[in-house]
Inverse folding.
């Protein structure tokens, strides 16, 4: 289960897509954001999920909602994945899993009796103030994009008069991405580095 819960401030990050474009959560302040973590590029379930989010990307855009996918794998892996399957939404490289860990989407897994650590399929719906409005754990890939779209549409309708989820065009904010390798301070907290914003 994700350690970032409903009502929490979503951890900021700075990651790149396969074109080298940088994305940070704070640059979308004023805009609702859907962040979905997926285990691995070019695998069957992850392909279905990415293609389905691509299929409804225009519907999210009409609501003023930004969709970002995050997983391990470098920019070359993301490029092959996007080009092979016609994926148009931004897929961001979390190569050292720092962002996945910050959201609690990385941890122990078991597949065919083998235990290992990896990304759990998890989705966060974040409002325009940067707070988590909904968390999907143990996501089933097929049909998930439509499920998130319907929830987001419902939340926007419910919040239209009073809440911060209300969609807006993206607002550009100042802020630099620090791509230096991360390190942990004496407190154990992750300090500035790849995936984190200064």
């Amino acid at each position: 289960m994700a350690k970032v819960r409903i009502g929490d401030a979503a951890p900021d990050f700075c990651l790149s897509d396969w074109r080298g474009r940088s994305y940070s959560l704070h640059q979308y302040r004023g805009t609702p954001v859907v962040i979905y973590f997926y285990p691995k590029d070019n695998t069957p379930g992850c392909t279905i999920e990415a293609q389905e989010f691509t299929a409804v990307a225009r519907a999210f855009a009409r609501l003023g909602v930004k969709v970002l996918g995050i997983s391990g794998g470098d920019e070359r892996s993301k490029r092959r994945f996007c080009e092979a399957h016609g994926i148009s939404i931004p897929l961001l490289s979390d190569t050292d899993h720092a962002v996945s860990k910050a959201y609690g989407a990385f941890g122990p897994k078991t597949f065919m009796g083998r235990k290992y650590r990896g990304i759990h399929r998890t989705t966060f719906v974040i409002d325009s103030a940067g707070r988590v409005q909904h968390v999907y754990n143990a996501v089933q890939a097929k049909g998930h994009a439509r499920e998130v779209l319907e929830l987001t549409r419902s939340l926007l309708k419910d919040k239209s008069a009073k809440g911060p989820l209300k969609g807006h065009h993206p607002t550009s904010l100042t802020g630099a991405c620090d791509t230096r390798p991360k390190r942990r301070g004496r407190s154990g907290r992750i300090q500035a580095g790849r995936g984190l914003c200064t």
Summary: DSSP finds five helices and eleven strands in the chain. The chain has one domain: 14-197. Helices lie at 44-55, 57-63, 75-85, 98-103, 144-159.
